[in-house]
C-alpha cells in the first residue's frame, strides 16, 4: 500500500493538538517542510523533543505551537542563542513553555529505551549537577536515583520516551516507508523508532528494488510509517548529505529577523504563512535570492563504491 | 632549536595550550572552534594517532573546510565511521573510550563546574542559555576535561549559578560520592590570561602558568576566588614556530581564529 501523500495531508491526518512529537535532525536533515506545515495548520499545545534543538524548534516555539519541550539544548549554532526560545523563557512571549532538561547522552538513551520497549534505562551522566535539582512537568517521573541492585552504587534511571509521532527527513524512501538515511544521525533512528507513528519526509521516493540494493541504510521499518512525503530541499536551511549544503546566509537572516517579535512575524509571513507548500517555498527562494544562490547550495556528486550483498 | 615568533594572537596561544594537553593515541571529543583547532594542532605536531570524534555521530572526520558546528556537512565525507548520538555519547563516551573532552562555558567556577543553562534564577531567568547538550556527559565521563573560558570576574565564579556540567562539584571526593566514574574530571582551565590546573586533593583550580603579557597580580585580581599560585608556576610557553605553521598554513588558512579576538579572547 502506498503511503505517499502531501505534507498538508500528513499533518492534517496524523498530528493533532496536544500531540507529543519527536522531530529528527542535527543541522543535518531537520524536517523543515513538515514543520512549516504544522505551523501553517495552527497546531496548539504540542510537546516536542530531540537532542540538540536548533532553529526549527526555536521557530515552533516562536510561532506558539509548543507548550512543552523535552530537550537538552537549544541554540542557533554559530548564530548564538535562540531568540524565540529566550523570549518564551524570559518574558513569556508568545507564551511560557515548560522545559524538562536532559543531556545529549540521557535523552537519546530514553528514546532508545522507548524504541526497544524498555520501561527505563540507567545512564551515567547528570549526577551531582543541578540538572537533577530542577523538575518540570514530568515531576517525579523525570528520573529516579537508586542504589544499584547489583553493586549498591548510586544509579540514575531515566524513563523511556514514547512520542505519538516521529517526524524525520531522510535522503530516500519507498512508497511503503522503508526510509534510508546516511551521514550524521543525531538521535534520528532512536527517536523515529520510539514513536508510535512515523512521518517520513524524503528528498526522493525510490522503488522497493532500490531500497533492496543497500538495505543496511534503512533506519525505520515501514510498519511504523504512516506517511511518506516527497519534499526535495525539505530540510533547508539545514542540509541533507549528498543533496545540498547548510544555508548559512539564510541562518543569519533568521537570527537577525528573530531578534525582535516584529521581525520574527515578518519572517514567518514571508517564508511560512504566505507560502502554500515546499514547491512555493523553493520558488520564492529563487525569486528572492536568484537561481545562482539556490544552485550553489546543491551538492556535488561523489559517489561511494557500491556495496555487494551477494552470497 | 625551538623558536617562538612573537606575532601570535591570544587565541592561537590558547589553542596551543589545549594541543599540548593531548597525547598521542588519545581519543578526543571535540566541539567547534578552539577544541577542533587544538586537537588538530596536536595531530599535526605530536599526536598523529589521536582520534577525534563529534558527538553528532562522527569518528575521525577529514573535513576539507572549517566545521562550523559538530553537525557540519563537511564532517561527513571521508570519516572513518558515522553513526549518531548513541554511538558516540553512548558507546564511545559512556563506554569509557574517551580520554579528552573539550568544553567551554558561559560561567566556570573554582571547582571547574560549568554553567551553560541559566544566568540568574532558574525559574525566573535573567538570561536563558542553551543548556547542557553534550557538555554534561562529556564533563561527567571523559577521563580528562579541558575547559576554555574568558578570564574575568563575570565568567569565572566562586560558585556557578547553575551546575550544568560537573567539575569537582563541591570539593574532593564529591564526584565519586555522586556516582561518577573514578579518574575523570577537569584537568585545566585555559583562559586568555592563564592556565589554571586542579589540585586533585582540594578540587580547586590554581595558577599553573600566566600568559606572556599577563602577570600573577593581574590574574589574581581578575579571579573571583583566592587563587593559589604554586611555587613552580611559570610563564606559559608561547606558540612554537611549528605550531603556528600548523595553524596558519594547514588548519586555518582563512584565519577564522581571529573571530575569538572579537569575542574578548585578547
Would you mind describing this structure in some detail?
The complex is a heterodimer of chains A (311) and B (266). Helix content of chain A is 32%, strand content 20%. Chain A has 311 residues and is of the alpha/beta class. Chain A folds into 2 domains: 7-117 and 161-230, Glutaconate Coenzyme A-transferase, CATH 3.40.1080.10; 248-296, no CATH class. In chain A, the strands form 2 sheets. In chain A, strands 1, 2, 3, 4, 8, 9, 10, 11 and 12 form a 9-stranded mixed sheet that branches. The radius of gyration of chain A is 20 Å and the shape is globular. The two termini of chain A are 30 Å apart. With 266 residues, chain B is of the alpha/beta class. Chain B has a single domain, classed as Glutaconate Coenzyme A-transferase (3-Layer(aba) Sandwich). Chain B contains 8 helices and 15 strands. Chain B has a 10-stranded mixed sheet with strand order 4-3-2-1-5-10-12-13-14-15, with helices on both faces. Chain B has a 3-stranded mixed sheet with strand order 7-6-11, with no helix packed on it. In chain B, a hairpin with a 3-residue loop joins β12 (186-190) and β13 (194-199). The longest helix of chain B has 12 residues, at 34-45. Chain B is globular, with a radius of gyration of 18 Å.
Amino acid at each position: 500500500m502506498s503511503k505517499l501523500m502531501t505534507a498538508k495531508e500528513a499533518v492534517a491526518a496524523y498530528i493533532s493538538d496536544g500531540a507529543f512529537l519527536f522531530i529528527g535532525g542535527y543541522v543535518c536533515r531537520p524536517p523543515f517542510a513538515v514543520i512549516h506545515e504544522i505551523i501553517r495548520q495552527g497546531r496548539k499545545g504540542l510537546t516536542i523533543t530531540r537532542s540538540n534543538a536548533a532553529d526549527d524548534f526555536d521557530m515552533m516555539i516562536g510561532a506558539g505551537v509548543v507548550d512543552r519541550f523535552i530537550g537538552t539544548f537549544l541554540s542557533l549554532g554559530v548564530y548564538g542563542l535562540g531568540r524565540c526560545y529566550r523570549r518564551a523563557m524570559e518574558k513569556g512571549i508568545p507564551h511560557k513553555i515548560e522545559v524538562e532538561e536532559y543531556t545529549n547522552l540521557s535523552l537519546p538513551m530514553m528514546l532508545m529505551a522507548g524504541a526497544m520497549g524498555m520501561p527505563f534505562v540507567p545512564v551515567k551522566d547528570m549526577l551531582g549537577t543541578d540538572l537533577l535539582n530542577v523538575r518540570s512537568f514530568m515531576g517525579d517521573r523525570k528520573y529516579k536515583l537508586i542504589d544499584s541492585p547489583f553493586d549498591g552504587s548510586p544509579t540514575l534511571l531515566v524513563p523511556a520516551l514514547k512520542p505519538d509521532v516521529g517526524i524525520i527527513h531522510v535522503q530516500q524512501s519507498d512508497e511503503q516507508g522503508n526510509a534510508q538515511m546516511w551521514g550524521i544521525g543525531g538521535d534520528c533512528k532512536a527517536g523515529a523508532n520510539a514513536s508510535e507513528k512515523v512521518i517520513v519526509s524524503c528528498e526522493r521516493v525510490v522503488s522497493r528494488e532500490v531500497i533492496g540494493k543497500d538495505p543496511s541504510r534503512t533506519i525505520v521499518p515501514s510498519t511504523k510509517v504512516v506517511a511518506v512525503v516527497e519534499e526535495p530541499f525539505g530540510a533547508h536551511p539545514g542540509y541533507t548529505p549528498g543533496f545540498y549544503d547548510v544555508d548559512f546566509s539564510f541562518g543569519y537572516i533568521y537570527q537577525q529577523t528573530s531578534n525582535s517579535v516584529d521581525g520574527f512575524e515578518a519572517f514567518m509571513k514571508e517564508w511560512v504563512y504566505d507560502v502554500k507548500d515546499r514547491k512555493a517555498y523553493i520558488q520564492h527562494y529563487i525569486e528572492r535570492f536568484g537561481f545562482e544562490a539556490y544552485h550553489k547550495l546543491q551538492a556535488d556528486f561523489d559517489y561511494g563504491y557500491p556495496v555487494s550483498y551477494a552470497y | 632549536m625551538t623558536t617562538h615568533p612573537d606575532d601570535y594572537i591570544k587565541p592561537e596561544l590558547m589553542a596551543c595550550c589545549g594541543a599540548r594537553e593531548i597525547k598521542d593515541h588519545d581519543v578526543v571529543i571535540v566541539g567547534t572552534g578552539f577544541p577542533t583547532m587544538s586537537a588538530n594542532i596536536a595531530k599535526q605536531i605530536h599526536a598523529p594517532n589521536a582520534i577525534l570524534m563529534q558527538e553528532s555521530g562522527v569518528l575521525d572526520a577529514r573535513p576539507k573546510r572549517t566545521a562550523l558546528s559538530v553537525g557540519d556537512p563537511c564532517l561527513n565525507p571521508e570519516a572513518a565511521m558515522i553513526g549518531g548520538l548513541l554511538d558516540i555519547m553512548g558507546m564511545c563516551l559512556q563506554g569509557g573510550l574517551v580520554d579528552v573532552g573539550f568544553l567551554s562555558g558561559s560561567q566556570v567556577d573554582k571547582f571547574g563546574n560549568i554553567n551553560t543553562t541559566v544566568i540568574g534564577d532558574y525559574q525566573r531567568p535573567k538570561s536563558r542559555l542553551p543548556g547542557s547538550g553534550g557538555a554534561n556527559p562529556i564533563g561527567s565521563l571523559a577521563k580528562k576535561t579541558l575547559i576554555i573560558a574568558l578570564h574575568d570576574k563575570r565568567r569565572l565564579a566562586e560558585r556557578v549559578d547553575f551546575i550544568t556540567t560537573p567539575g569537582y562539584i563541591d570539593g574532593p571526593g564529591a564526584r565519586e560520592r555522586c556516582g561518577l566514574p573514578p579518574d575523570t574530571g577537569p584537568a585545566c582551565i585555559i583562559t586568555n590570561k592563564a592556565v589554571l590546573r586542579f589540585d586533585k586533593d582540594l578540587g580547586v583550580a590554581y595558577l599553573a602558568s600566566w600568559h606572556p603579557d599577563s602577570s600573577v597580580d593581574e590574574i589574581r585580581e581578575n579571579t573571583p576566588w583566592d587563587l593559589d599560585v604554586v611555587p613552580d608556576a611559570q610563564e606559559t610557553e608561547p606558540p612554537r614556530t611549528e605550531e603556528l605553521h600548523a595553524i596558519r598554513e594547514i588548519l586555518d588558512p582563512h584565519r577564522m581564529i581571529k573571530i575569538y579576538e572579537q569575542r574578548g579572547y585578547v
